[in-house]
Amino acid sequence: MSAPLVIAVDGPAAAGKGTLALRLARALDLPYLDTGLLYRATGRRMLDAGLDPASPADGQARLVTLEDLSRTDLRVPQVDRAASLVASQPTVRRILVGIQRDFAARHGAVLDGRDIGTVIFPDARVKLFVTASLAARARRRWEQMTTDPDAPDREAQIARVARELQDRDAADSSRAAAPLRAAPDAIHIETDDMSADEVLAEALRIVARMTR
Ligand code: CDP
Ligand code: CDP
């Protein structure tokens, strides 16, 4: 019997990894795991405990379970930063490897993150690296978060989001432990001029080709 199908979706912040990975999972009837939520849940726990997310976070990472990932307070700017800080700690990453590998062990899975194709599943049958320009990513993240799409200071808000994404990507790419990097055998999808539907169609073509 062939090994369960694992699809790795990596890339920088707000590139559309999660949107693609969820749609791929639905289309292929595979379980889906947003691995960023593991680091967000760890960062959230540090903040809730009154701890500095830059200090050792392995104790809080050990407490993270799949149930924590449905918390509704994980996608706020404070947790973006806390997640990136705890994610730079090798001990935290080691603790969270197990959840990710176990998740895909039985039925395969689509996982999105930063190091899925390089560290978590270096043998994944399909590895996608999803990118978009900083300007496109900042606009997408702002549109996701804003409550006032016609805000008069819209451009200034988007510029602020761009700075935050750039800082987080720089930290994620330059850390020693599992930096954000495309696996040598990853297939890149540059999504600036593509809709989410077009990205899904392209990814499904790649999957069909790689799993023939
Ligand atoms: O959705 P977005 O791309 O903004 O972030 P995320 O995927 O939820 O990840 C939040 C943070 O967790 C990232 O900035 C990384 O520092 C970290 N992360 C990681 O180190 N490795 C992963 N596999 C996933 C996320
Ligand atoms: O998971 P990641 O942080 O990489 O990005 P996301 O949260 O999946 O996507 C950010 C936003 O971009 C979502 O609102 C998507 O609908 C939108 N988007 C996309 O994912 N793909 C495109 N080709 C265009 C827009």
Automatic annotation (TrEMBL):
ATP binds at residues 11-19. Keywords: ATP-binding, Cytoplasm, Kinase, Nucleotide-binding, Transferase. Its main location: cytoplasm. Residues 7-207 form the Cytidylate kinase domain. It is found in: Cytoplasm. One of its GO terms (molecular function) is CMP kinase activity. HAMAP family: Cytidyl_kinase_type1 (MF_00238). Belongs to the cytidylate kinase family. Type 1 subfamily. This is Cytidylate kinase. The gene is cmk.
